[in-house]
Amino acid sequence: MATSPPIASENLLPYVADTGARHVRLFKNGANQAVRIPKEFELPGKDAIMRREGNRLIIEVPEKPQKGTLAALVAALDAIRHLGPIDEPFPDVDEGLLPLDDIIL
Q1: Burial class of residue 15, CB neighbours in 10 A (0-12, 13-18, 19+)
Q2: Nearest CA to 61 among 1, 23, 2, 9?
Q3: CB of 53 within 8 A of CB of 42?
Q4: Pairing of strands 32-35, 49-53
Q5: pLDDT confidence band for 51 (50 / 70 / 90)
Q6: Exposure winner among 38, 45, 97, 103, fewest CB in 10 A?
Q7: pLDDT at residue 102 is higher than 50
Q8: Hey, which residues does 33 pair with through a beta bridge?
Q9: Domain that holds residue 40
């Protein structure tokens, strides 16, 4: 069975090593089923993406915030903040148009 290559990014470098399989126990947490993630499988951050492929559950680090979420808005505003001021003059949008006529009502 083919495995996908590890994601190489600065945040994940300690997590790309293959740790092999490990038996874990499932338990109930309120109405939800839960699993305690062993230290060697620990992921960075506080969020993850979970999906089902057949009888497997796959938990991954999200690459970027999902569109339409507060996290996506915060990430976009942070990116805008780092752009800095624009040094270009604002274009004249009326350039080449005829002058407006005065209208008496």
Answers
A1: middle
A2: 9
A3: no
A4: unpaired
A5: very high
A6: 103
A7: yes
A8: 28
A9: 14-81
